[in-house]
Amino acid sequence: MLGKPLVPSRLTSAFSHVGSRPSRTRIGAYIALTKPRIIELLLITTVPTMVLATGGWPDTWLVVWTVVGGTLAAGGANAINMYIDRDIDRVMERTRNRPLVTGHVSPRSALVFAVALEVAAFCVLAWSSNMLAGALAIAATLFYVFVYSLWLKRTSRQNIVIGGAAGAAPVLVGWAAVTGSVSWSAVVLFLVIFLWTPPHFWALAIRHVDDYRAADVPMLPVVETPARTVRTMGWYSVAVAVVSFALIPLNDMGVIYVVAATVLGAAFVALTFGLGRTPSQSAAMRVFSFSISYVTLLFLAVVLDVLVR
Predict the structure, then answer these.
(1) Most CB atoms within 10 A, among 120, 150, 164, 273?
(2) Per-residue pLDDT of the chain (309 residues; tens, 9 = 90+)
């Protein structure tokens, strides 16, 4: 049974996701296909992971080429996602100005562009670091496309939970680029992003619950009551905070990381559970905004802790 939304039906927040504004040029339209803001967030996790894997600042060119390869892979995956979702993007208010909806880019051109980006991504990563990094990037794209976009997104309330694995893959790519392998530390960082994704995305889904309901996409705020949604978000935020501490013994992390993980984790948990006491549009967006700050500052603490020590 559908729960009542936490927010008003009119979606007029100043916050806009990638692709909500019409592209004025052909180049701008193709850039919009890649969802640049999402890519920024993925790269925030990649470089700190490389620093941790190295135990200091890695070779700068390796960082540059890994970032380039990761950007190409994520951009290609996002473009394929837009190709798949172009029907529901027409229904959802926040996505009606995306390039495939407005006709700035044809579906066939978008798909060719996306595949070209993936081929380029694999070549860049395999050439600049190793085959494992390239293979992990392509595997993440395939998972995002076939498991999340084509299967789970429209059929399961667990869509963003399982699909979040694709968004957590850049830490594995970054670690593999440096070491040629994947360690337990990389797995912990992967789990941090994997567990962080549901409360992060569900906060945004609460804000746009009417959009997802109109498009018949079973995001948790659509198919569950507000109380159950917030409670589930809260327990995921607890899991994120707990898992973040596993990095301390694995890498002998110092006081900078310990303090950051403690303070940020406590704030994330408190703010998420607090959404149940103040179930409003603005409160949901505060959780969403802080979730971005949480992952940014936590991974920045990784960099500072390693470099200072």
Answers:
(1) 164
(2) 333 333 333 333 333 333 344 446 889 999 999 999 888 877 899 999 999 999 999 999 999 999 999 999 999 999 999 999 999 999 999 899 999 999 999 999 999 999 999 999 999 999 999 999 999 999 999 999 999 999 999 999 999 999 999 999 999 999 999 999 999 999 999 999 999 999 999 999 999 999 999 999 999 999 999 999 999 999 999 999 999 999 999 999 999 999 999 999 999 999 999 998 877 878 999 999 999 999 999 999 999 999 998
In a domain, 294, yes or no: yes
Question: Token pair for residue 257?
Answer: 């990381």
Domain of 39 in residue numbering reads as 26-308
Residue the block writes with tokens 């619950």: 209
Q: Are 38 and 78 in contact (CB under 8 A)?
A: yes
Count the helix, strand and coil residues of the chain and give each as a percent rounded to the nearest 5. Answer: 75, 0, 25
With respect to residue 75, please indicate whether it lies within any of the assigned structural domains.
Answer: yes
CATH number at residue 184: 1.10.600
Number of domains, the chain: 1
CB under 8 Å to 112, separation ≥6 — which residues? none
Q: Is residue 303 a part of any domain in this protein?
A: yes
Residue 2 maps to a domain: no
